[in-house]
Amino acid sequence: MDSAHPIEYQVRLDYCHHQLLLLIQPMSTFAAYRIHQDEYQHRAGLEELTLEELSPGDVVVRVEWSTVNFKDALAATGRSKILRKSPLVGGVDAAGRVESSADPRLSVGTPVVVTGSGLGEVRDGGFASYLRVPADSVVALPANLSTRDAMIAGTAGFTAALALERMEHNGQTPALGPILISGASGGVGSFAVALCAQRGYEVSALSLKPFSIDYLRDLGASKVILREGLEMGRRALETARFGGAIDTLGGDYLGWMIRSVHANGNVAAIGMATSTELNTSVMPFILRGVNLLGINSVDVPRAVREHIWQRLADSMTRAQLDSICAGEIGLADLPEFCTEMLAGHVMGRALVRVS
Length: 355
Ligand SMILES: NC(=O)c1ccc[n+]([C@@H]2O[C@H](COP(=O)([O-])OP(=O)(O)OC[C@H]3O[C@@H](n4cnc5c(N)ncnc54)[C@H](OP(=O)(O)O)[C@@H]3O)[C@@H](O)[C@H]2O)c1
Hints:
The chain is an alpha/beta fold and 355 residues long. The protein has two domains: 9-140 and 317-353, Medium-chain alcohol dehydrogenases, catalytic domain (Quinone Oxidoreductase, Chain A, domain 1); 156-294, 3-Layer(aba) Sandwich (Rossmann fold), CATH 3.40.50. Helices cover 26% and strands 30% of the residues. The protein is built from nine helices and 18 strands. The chain has helices at residues 70-77, 147-169, 187-198, 213-219, 251-259, 283-287, 302-315, 318-324, 334-342; strands at residues 9-16, 19-26, 30-37, 42-49, 59-67, 88-89, 93-101, 111-115, 130-133, 139-140, 179-182, 203-207, 223-226, 242-247, 261-269, 291-294, 325-330, 349-353. Strands 5, 7, 8, 9, 10, 17 and 18 form a seven-stranded mixed beta sheet that branches. Helix 9 (334-342) links the parallel strand 17 and strand 18. The protein starts with 8 loop residues before the first strand and ends with a strand. The chain binds NADP nicotinamide-adenine-dinucleotide phosphate.
């Protein structure tokens, strides 16, 4: 909080877990990137808010870092209707320290991460100095992951790790063959490449950007397939080239992956950067036992969240995190950055410096 916004505190009493709690919370105003959207208008920009104006919750987090996901860019620009309530502070992710807590599992000062859980969709999100949320959506960070590192990952890294977890739970192993990863230079794609490579999978990265080849190889891809001129065929079953796939594009790309995966391979459907459609026959499922796994990073139980964050912390190297980090922006830079992101021009992940 800068000196232009001196902190005042409000004291209130709360009853939680059979205890009467004394909560001390900041009262001053702080900057927030807020989105107003209804059927007639969309506008977004910096506003001054007080804590009392935020969505309710029993934990207040002093946000240090946020990040920009594809969904944030859709919400901030109004390109798709992401908000199910208006107005809302944008940002589906936040990392920072517990400022006050009515939950005994989270003590003041604990470094925490909050992703998904309705942030930026049905409740105020991470593009503000403070976040107020239910305790069940808050995960204490593993000791080997800083708040900054957590936001290099954010929902993108979390989702990539969740996809790999689900695939392995369903029998995926490096022996089944290479993993194809689409939208590879984006946030989810970059983490999927790094995590799969770290785990011993051969990675084929699919990208539109010729200039991303070195970046993807450094992250661990053994092959980079450029989308320009890619021949996807039209047969119900294409030659099986991949042991599994992680898709962020949807549409024809997802259909092609399903037709091109070896017997018993898994295809994780994560995104729809090019299309929400999926045209497929049942042949890959019936004749090859291919599994299509839907990945939802928003509604994940706390125990699973904790496990996935630990997996991320244990798997990602310093060099990989630094390589994926595309730089830092401020809240005021969001409109321009989000437009670039939706055009598919961004490589890796941008951090949003909040406090
Ligand atoms: N299921 C979930 O819970 C979940 C969680 C996170 C994200 N997602 C979804 O996953 C997708 C990727 O998210 P992200 O945060 O990784 O986004 P991102 O960082 O913007 O990456 C998207 C990548 O897709 C590729 N792309 C291809 N065509 C594009 C187009 N027309 N517009 C934009 N990008 C295009 C680009 O990579 P190349 O140039 O390398 O092809 C781009 O970098 C989005 O659809 C997002 O909504 C879903």
